[in-house]
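for the recovery benchmark. C-alpha cells below, seq after
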C-alpha cells in the first residue's frame, strides 16, 4: 500500500512537472518577437512541448496497457521533437539562450523519465 501511494505521488508530480513545463514554454513563446520567422518555429515548439504533458494525461484514460504505453511513446517523441525546435530557436535566431538552455535541460530530464518509464512498462532492464 505504501509503495502504491509513493507511485501515485510520483505520477502526479510528473504530470504537474510537465504542466509547469508547458506553461514555461508558452511564456517563452509569448515573449518572442512578432517576426514572421518566429511564427513557424514557435507554432511547432508549442505543439510538441505541450503534447508531452497532454499525452501523459491522456494515458490515464487508456483502455489497455498497450494503449497506455503508446501515449508514453508519443510523449517521448514529442520531447525529442521539442529539443530540435528549442535548439533551432537558440542557435538560429536571437532568442534568450540561457532560458532555452534551461528548457533544453528540463526537456532532456523529462525525456529520460519517459524513456525509463517505457523500459519499465515494457519489462526491459534499465542499463
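predicted aa per position
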Amino acid at each position: 500500500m505504501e509503495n502504491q501511494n509513493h507511485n501515485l505521488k510520483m505520477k502526479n508530480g510528473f504530470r504537474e512537472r510537465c504542466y509547469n513545463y508547458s506553461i514555461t514554454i508558452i511564456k517563452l513563446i509569448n515573449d518572442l518577437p512578432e517576426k514572421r520567422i518566429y511564427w513557424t518555429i514557435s507554432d511547432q515548439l508549442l505543439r510538441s512541448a505541450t503534447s508531452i504533458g497532454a499525452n501523459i494525461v491522456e494515458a490515464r484514460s487508456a483502455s489497455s496497457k498497450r494503449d497506455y504505453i503508446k501515449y508514453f511513446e508519443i510523449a517521448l517523441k514529442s520531447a525529442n521533437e521539442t529539443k530540435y525546435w528549442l535548439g533551432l530557436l537558440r542557435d538560429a535566431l536571437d532568442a534568450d539562450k540561457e532560458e532555452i538552455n534551461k528548457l533544453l535541460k528540463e526537456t532532456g530530464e523529462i525525456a529520460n523519465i519517459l524513456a525509463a518509464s517505457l523500459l519499465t512498462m515494457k519489462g526491459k532492464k534499465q542499463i
